[in-house]
Specification:
Two copies of one chain form a homodimer. By secondary structure, chain A is α/β, with parallel strands linked by helices. The first copy, chain A, contains 17 helices and 14 strands. The C terminus of chain A is likely disordered.
Amino acid sequence: MSTRYVSGVQLARLLGEVPHERPFYAALAREVRALVLDGRLALRTRLPAERDLAGALGVSRTTVTAAYDRLRDEGFVESRQGAGSWTALPPTKMTASPAREVPSVSPPFGAGRFGMAHAPEGAGFIDLGCATPGAPRIFEEAVAAATAELPRYSGGPGYEPAGLAELREVIADGYAARGVPTRPDQIVVTTGAQHAFTLLTQMMVDTGDAVMVERPTYPHALGALRRRGARLVPVGVNEGWDLELIAGSMRQAAVRLAYTVADFHNPTGRLMGEDDRAALVDAARRADAFLVADETFAELGHDLSAPRPAPLAAFDQGGRVITIGSASKLLWGGLRIGWIRATAPLARRLVLLREAVDMASPVLDQLIVRELLLRVDEVRAERAATLVARRDALAAALREDLPGWRFTLPDGGMSLWARLGAPVATLLSEAAGRYGVRVVPGPVFGADGVLEDCVRLPYVLPPDVLRTAVERLAAAYREVEAAPVARPLPAYV
Amino acid sequence: MSTRYVSGVQLARLLGEVPHERPFYAALAREVRALVLDGRLALRTRLPAERDLAGALGVSRTTVTAAYDRLRDEGFVESRQGAGSWTALPPTKMTASPAREVPSVSPPFGAGRFGMAHAPEGAGFIDLGCATPGAPRIFEEAVAAATAELPRYSGGPGYEPAGLAELREVIADGYAARGVPTRPDQIVVTTGAQHAFTLLTQMMVDTGDAVMVERPTYPHALGALRRRGARLVPVGVNEGWDLELIAGSMRQAAVRLAYTVADFHNPTGRLMGEDDRAALVDAARRADAFLVADETFAELGHDLSAPRPAPLAAFDQGGRVITIGSASKLLWGGLRIGWIRATAPLARRLVLLREAVDMASPVLDQLIVRELLLRVDEVRAERAATLVARRDALAAALREDLPGWRFTLPDGGMSLWARLGAPVATLLSEAAGRYGVRVVPGPVFGADGVLEDCVRLPYVLPPDVLRTAVERLAAAYREVEAAPVARPLPAYV
């Protein structure tokens, strides 16, 4: 399962002094989790056998077993009979249970602190882990219109692996309107953007293939590439895209595929300019690499009167740019509809592959997305108005309560990328959990356990909730500043 | 991509005498397709370079290029730059375009024959490739009820990787009612049964792992296993399950996973008895293998008063039986909802994995499935009444027009498995296409290119359409009988 391995002795050294708390297994689990979270213990590293770690730590094997069990429950360790256990990251938790009011937030540092493992997600807990909004106002009308269309389909088998022709036409028209002439047979409807990227990696990435990723980038994209055994080639984009550097890395690493979020980048919110777009497509051409452009956030510009750069595909002559689109952020995540734009032959191969993976996408959801896309200007206007207000509320609160943090105000997307000025994001995330805020630390967005001075702050919740969240983050940050890391950072294994 | 390779000389020998038609590339493509279809050229075999095959056949390289292109278009060949080309099977075509009336079928052998590649699927063409029905009568009511519930969810992000709690409860209750106590945290909602099986193979099957499959079995299950690089261990079930043989193979092949459709088997329609179920679970236990029970057809018994055997999971003590359920056949395929029942820890791991594959399943579809499952007895009664009438019409037509074919009348499911008495299923399928019927030949359901004397005949279309289909099949069969295979079967490479 994994080629990396850490011995009992090595892991004991990495752990340093585990606090002698009771139960000890919980402390041990927490410390291992910290090593995984801040990247000192690389992902998919095979863990030592329980008796080896027990011996190295001088504790009973039962204690190690209990710690591994806890880590497995939390998703930081995966195991398989016969293959041992290895480190992992639990995915960002997102919930679709009946929409809970985020309550008017009780005094943040009042009544009691929440233990991280048992943080009550009702009772005032604020989840900044999830950067995705509810459905737009016209949703109900779109559902009604789609439902009225449904009987035209429900008498048949309901499978269309490429997607409903009616939806593909609307999607193709959308690209044409943005200056990229597109035929419906170039579109494959998928079950969301993540599904689209998973399909692409299954078709185009084999074990050991070099794949360029931005650092930071969308964590689930990294997950999909890791599962394919890709060799990740990260390029830093914290300060924007350095095309000279990117072109050089692409050539030198013999990159086969590059994954980019050029339109309101996740998580930095940056928008790539047209010159850089032309240069990026040219670099891909020179390196003979495919370029996957994730446009999940492309329609979420905050100023609808601002000129939009042409899509990356507009700079492409040779079918080298593959575009991913998604209903999840613009329309609604609960719809599970995304799509891929590619050349017609590639689209056909994707259809064959997707059919063997999950057959087809849901018909009613496709009809709803079609209705919403036909009125996409209304949706964009609503999103822009809401997001600008929330972005500004978040930014104002940060400037007031956490004046040391630095950020660039995004012109689109749904999240703000804050630089803390100190490599404490993971510690801050843990402390914030106790103060009733969930926040995702920078390293989760990196391919290699860096970015410890960054956190992603989505602004999809209402302004007052965001203000309370920032108050709590400020309190957590003061705590982290006051109690610097107790253990020295041991050597990287 | 593939470990098998066929040289230009070997392929030329396999092809034998390619008819000298014009354009020659089309004849060449057709003959290669035939080799793939009847299994003489194994799937995922790497094809020779174009110039090598051109040399071996004594034709121009352009001709071979054109033939490969044609095969690629048809899905019988896949290619990737740098990795060459290899054999593949196009998946069964199924369409969800607005339900077309299957017309009152023009005289079957009249006006003109349809070329296979250009068979007009409107104009009286009958598709027996697709064994899946339209939605049940109460569908519209269920959609209305689900739509009314939707606002409770559409204000939130819409992601629930495990599935909506409300749906998982109803599914768990359904198992409990069948004698298998189940908690909702043992259920993972997926995007259809194929997606469920794909997830399971991704979690449990690595390259080279031995996986037992029934022969015949569901083709897309074979596809998912092949993509994982599984070593397939087929056991024949044409005459039912031989548990002694199965138990022996499981042990000897060190099978890690076994895939079974014990409830109205696809494609044979057989139902496994309780003794065999107990023995199968026991064999899996002894072999230390997991058993994946695909219950896609389990609720589609034709006689609702007949006693139902207990689910395979009822015979399981150790979390060894993993059950797949699906809305596609019982409810509607256009919903794209399936599920997995497993132990709670395994379910949790599946949730983490599925989140990285496609995040979650669509909310509205889950709500619709919940409404339909709450009234599942009505749906089952409707399905049974319809399917019995269609099965009987199909059987009567077969007895009349094709008295030499043999079959066992299924007690459930949606298709009949006919034995032709001669290994001509692929030829029959090609001829039937010219007569305006699409039928899937036996080898598609086999792991290793056998079953040439079988075809699957779904009975989801109306009785008069089925009767016309059988008339056309009979005509095609007469043609195939009259013109025996022109080329001798060459040796298997």
